[in-house]
Write a structure and sequence with these properties.
The chain is mostly helical. The chain contains 5 helices and no strands. The model has no long low-confidence stretch (mean pLDDT 80).
Length: 116
């Protein structure tokens, strides 16, 4: 207790370094007198009650499950009905072919003849 009062006086006198050293020394002395915590004394004394187990599915749960499955089935059906005629590979080939056709010179330029 005497070290705490000396630290307080040092802080009030405007000497924070000496006050800090005295406070750290008093804490070290106070902690050295304590025995180490073991078992239930470690500070973990709060034990919560176990959560109640989940029961079976209620009527609302079955309804939500049914609506979810209907939404998934409807989505799959619509995706199948409105799918494009070509797949991605065919579309890529078509775009590449059109791009190459644009880069080719016209038929008259290739043959060297003049257009009429």
């Amino acid at each position: 207790m005497a070290e705490l009062q000396q630290a307080k006086a040092a802080l009030q006198a405007g000497n924070p370094a000496q006050g800090r050293a005295l406070l750290q020394e008093s804490i070290t002395v106070a902690l050295s007198t304590l025995e180490p915590a073991t078992g239930g004394e470690t500070g973990t004394t709060a034990v919560l009650d176990p959560l109640p187990p989940r029961g079976g599915l209620s009527g609302a749960d079955w309804g939500f499950l049914t609506v979810s499955l209907l939404a998934v089935i409807t989505g799959l059906l619509l995706a199948y009905m409105f799918r494009p005629d070509q797949n991605v590979r065919e579309l890529r080939l078509l775009l590449a072919w059109k791009h190459r056709r644009q880069d080719l010179p016209s038929k008259h330029q290739r043959s060297g003849r003049k257009e009429r």
